[in-house]
């Protein structure tokens, strides 16, 4: 028996309104709510058995609609509202006296999933758009979902958020307060809302094999969902990443200082930590089967042929950086250039037209290996992975490099380790983005010995110095959901810099500002409330584009008066001449 979409909508409702647990009451006299994992497991236990094939994929696509690129609909709030108005408005008015449905909709999650696939195939940004199938118009598909399916209002709300690829407004709604005001909203801590159900946590509750596959390097939810249904008690799926399947990349811990970066390794029975250079580029995972090594560039071809390595399959991690074989700006000679030299399809030489294009190209800086000749290296120590990486990757200057690193010995004491790391970090700040600390004994996804990223941007009072100006403020949907605030709160600030300072100060030119970046993080709730109040109460001076400029007005009025005086003088002369002529 199929799982109905109404049943899934009830799951979303209970995750939003968790019932109280059996734990003793707290200081406030209320028992703590059930955890989202327990609610999810309870819902699973009430599902019909056995479940139809592909139920796992159907459930996780609906519960985590933002994961992956399989379905993108090209519909945001405004466009979807317009579509639903045409689908619902007229028919809803003409059937205003129809008796309400007393039975629940029986449309299954499999049927809804198929209709959503068909709807997503209309968007060029969706993977399903590449599937050659005959498509019905989006309005017809939406009518099937919103009218013909007979869904309840609660299920329609869930369906709408699935199409918007964001269930958070239903799973973690705003706090119940008597008025919508930035001060009131920011006064409620984000932790006051329901606990979130994470993807990995949901996988463990649904099928532990799915979670293990995802954790072991197969970071594609779709692939893990399909594979977990084939797992039997007497069948073991090979661990580790496989070719053509996304790898789940571990997140680094931010090091706020040299001492803070090392504290995660002290007392963990590791002798050495390696400070690996963090390059400023695009992260790339390369997967290849049956490699044939070669190059169209005339320079590296003979070196590659001379050092060919027999590799049947491999998955490598690298950073894509721009490389200049000529003379870099400032007379620095050949080497890796700044990040902004990178373009979507390569490296542009537009900033220096005199430099031949052939001297600028992409370079790969390799820093990890996850799979080699059919064997997973996810559970291998960093020491072993680096050794294999050095055997597989051949150094070809300007094209293929290994990430540089420095050893930080821990067995000589904490003070000595901090001194060594401080010197290495200082040298790195002069040339590269920062460092990533990795212990010799750490595996790829290690919960005990996690990678630590150390950048000058993370350390207070350290970093690049530039005069910046606040150009505007706005609302970011992701940051707003994290803060649990509505659109009345400014969550994001747009920062730029003055590009013609000398012209403004010396020649009274119109100031020209260039936008650089947006800032959504780093501010406490109290600071954010203060900034919102400063904008709302006009404590911060604002200058809209259409506001009149007093200086310009005075200059303009002077010019107008001079012009009028000249015209009047000329008119009087004309009258005098005409008078003499008569």
Structural commentary:
The chain has helices spanning 5-16, 36-45, 55-63, 77-94, 109-120, 138-148, 153-163, 168-171, 182-186, 199-206, 208-215, 221-228, 258-262, 301-306, 382-392, 414-431, 477-483, 501-507, 525-536, 550-581, and strands at residues 253-254, 272-278, 282-289, 313-328, 333-336, 342-343, 346-347, 360-372, 375-376, 400-402, 405-409, 434-439, 452-455, 469-474, 492-498, 513-519. The protein has 582 residues and is an alpha+beta fold. Among the domains are: 5-173, Orthogonal Bundle (DNA ligase i, domain 1); 253-458, D-amino Acid Aminotransferase, Chain A, domain 1 (2-Layer Sandwich), CATH 3.30.470. Strands 3, 4, 5, 8, 9 and 10 form a six-stranded mixed β-sheet that branches. It has a five-stranded mixed β-sheet with strand order 1-13-12-2-11. A hairpin with a 2-residue loop joins β6 (342-343) and β7 (346-347).
Name its key features.
single chain; 582 residues; alpha+beta; DNA ligase i, domain 1; D-amino Acid Aminotransferase, Chain A, domain 1; 6-stranded mixed beta sheet; 5-stranded mixed beta sheet; globular; disordered C terminus; ATP binding; DNA_ligase_ATP-dep_cent; ATP-dependent DNA ligase family profile domain-containing protein; nucleotide-binding
Structure summarized in a few sentences:
This protein is an alpha+beta fold and 582 residues long. Among the domains are: 5-173, Orthogonal Bundle (DNA ligase i, domain 1), CATH 1.10.3260.10; 253-458, DNA ligase/mRNA capping enzyme (D-amino Acid Aminotransferase, Chain A, domain 1). The protein is 37% helix and 16% strand.
């Amino acid at each position: 028996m199929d799982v109905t979409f109404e049943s899934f909508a009830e799951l979303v409702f209970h995750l939003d309104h968790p019932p109280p647990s059996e734990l003793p009451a707290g200081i406030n006299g209320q028992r703590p709510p059930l955890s989202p994992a327990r609610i999810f497991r309870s819902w699973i236990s009430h599902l019909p058995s056995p479940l139809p094939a592909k139920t796992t994929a159907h459930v996780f696509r609906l519960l985590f609609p933002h994961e992956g690129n399989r379905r993108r609909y090209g519909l945001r709030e405004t466009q979807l509202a317009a579509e639903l108005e045409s689908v619902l408005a007229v028919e809803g008015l003409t059937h205003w006296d129809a008796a309400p449905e007393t039975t629940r909709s029986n449309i299954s999650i499999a049927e809804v999933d198929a209709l959503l696939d068909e709807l997503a195939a209309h968007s060029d940004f969706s993977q399903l758009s590449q599937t050659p199938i005959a498509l019905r118009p989006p309005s017809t598909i939406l009518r099937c979902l919103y009218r013909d399916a007979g869904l309840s209002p609660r299920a329609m709300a869930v369906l709408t958020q699935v199409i918007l690829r964001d269930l958070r407004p239903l799973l973690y709604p705003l706090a119940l307060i008597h008025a919508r005001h930035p001060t009131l909203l920011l006064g409620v801590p984000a932790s006051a809302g329901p606990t979130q159900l994470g993807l990995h946590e949901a996988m463990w509750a649904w099928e532990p094999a799915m979670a293990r596959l995802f954790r072991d390097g197969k970071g594609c939810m779709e692939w893990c969902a399909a594979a977990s249904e084939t797992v039997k008690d007497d069948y073991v799926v090979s661990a580790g990443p496989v070719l053509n399947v996304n790898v789940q990349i571990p997140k680094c811990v931010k090091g706020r200082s040299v001492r803070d970066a090392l504290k995660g390794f002290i007392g963990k029975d590791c002798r050495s930590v390696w400070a690996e250079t963090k390059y400023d580029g695009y992260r790339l995972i390369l997967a290849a089967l049956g490699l044939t090594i070669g190059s169209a560039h005339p320079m590296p071809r003979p070196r590659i042929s001379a050092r060919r390595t027999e590799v049947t399959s491999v998955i490598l991690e690298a950073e894509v950086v721009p490389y200049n074989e000529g003379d870099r700006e400032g007379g620095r000679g050949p080497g890796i250039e700044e990040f902004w030299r990178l373009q979507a399809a390569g490296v542009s030489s537009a900033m220096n037209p005199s430099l031949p294009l052939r001297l600028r190209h992409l370079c790969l800086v390799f820093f990890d290996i996850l799979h080699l000749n059919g064997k997973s290296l996810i559970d291998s120590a960093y020491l072993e992975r680096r050794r294999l990486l050095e055997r597989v990757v051949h150094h070809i200057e300007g094209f293929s490099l290994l990430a540089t690193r420095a050893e930080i010995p821990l067995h000589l004491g904490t003070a000595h380790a901090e001194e060594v790391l401080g010197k290495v970090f200082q040298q790195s700040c002069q040339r590269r983005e920062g460092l990533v600390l990795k212990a010799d004994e750490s595996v790829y996804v290690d919960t005990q010995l996690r990678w630590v990223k150390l950048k000058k941007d993370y350390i207070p009072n350290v970093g690049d110095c530039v005069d910046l100006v606040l150009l505007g403020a706005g609302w970011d949907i992701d940051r707003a959901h994290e803060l649990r605030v509505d659109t009345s709160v400014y969550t994001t600030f747009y920062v730029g810099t003055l590009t013609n300072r000398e012209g403004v100060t010396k020649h009274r030119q119109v100031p020209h500002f260039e936008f650089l970046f947006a800032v959504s993080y780093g501010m406490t709730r109290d600071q954010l409330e203060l900034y919102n109040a400063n904008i709302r109460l006009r404590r911060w001076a604002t200058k809209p584009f259409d506001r009149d400029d007093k200086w310009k007005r005075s200059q303009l009025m002077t010019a107008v008066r001079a012009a009028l005086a000249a015209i009047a003088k000329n008119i009087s002369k004309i009258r005098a001449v005409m008078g003499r002529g008569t």
